[in-house]
Amino acid sequence: MSDSINYPEVGARIRQQREHIGMTQEQLGEACDLSASFVGHIERGSRKLSVESLYKLASVLDVSVDYLLFNSMLQETSLPTEISSLLQGSDKRKRQQFWRTVKVLACHLDEL
User: Fold this and answer.
1) pLDDT in tens, 11-65
2) In 3D, which of 38, 41, 43 has the Cα closest to residue 15?
3) What is the maximum span of the chain, computed from C-alpha positions, in angstroms?
4) Which pTM was predicted?
5) Which residue has the higher pLDDT, 109 or 31?
6) Three-state SS across the chain?
7) pLDDT over 70 for what percent of the chain?
8) How many Cα neighbours within 13 Å face the side chain of 35?
């Protein structure tokens, strides 16, 4: 892990996650109480952001602050985002069936 923050890389990770979840800069800015132009500056790495803004962005983007700063995230922490993406557009019954299946698999992992 580097001693300094690479703001262009932080911005690239923010942009990548924002696009992954289908948000515009305007939507992300509104959700974080930031202007869209400031979000653009953050994504380009041309402006530094406060700890508070970093926390808000991570929360809205559903990633860890550690991931945004240093591109390090335990694989398990990305599972909710990946699962949500897979289930997007599914009806309630399908999502419930999916979770029942996951629970059964989790209980029997040692047997697989």
Assistant:
1) 999 999 999 999 999 999 999 999 999 999 999 999 999 999 999 999 999 998 8
2) 43
3) 53
4) 0.63
5) 31
6) CCCCCCHHHHHHHHHHHHHHCCCCHHHHHHHHCCCHHHHHHHHHCCCCCCHHHHHHHHHHHCCCHHHHHHCCCCHHHHHHHHHHHHHCCCCHHHHHHHHHHHHHHHHCHHHC
7) 90
8) 4
Tokens for 36?
């869209």
Of 53, 73, 51, which Cα lies nearest the Cα of 63? 73
At residue 92, does pLDDT exceed 90?
A: no
- Side chain identity, residue 91: D
Q: Which pLDDT band holds residue 1 (cuts at 50, 70, 90)?
A: very low
Structure tokens at 22: 């289908």
**Burial classification of residue 80, based on how many CB atoms lie within 10 Å of its CB (0-12 exposed, 13-18 middle, 19 or more buried):** exposed
Query: Rounded to whole angstroms, what are the CA distances from 4 to 9, 37, 52, 70, 92?
Result: 12, 25, 18, 10, 45
Q: How far apart are CA 50 and CA 52, in angstroms?
A: 5
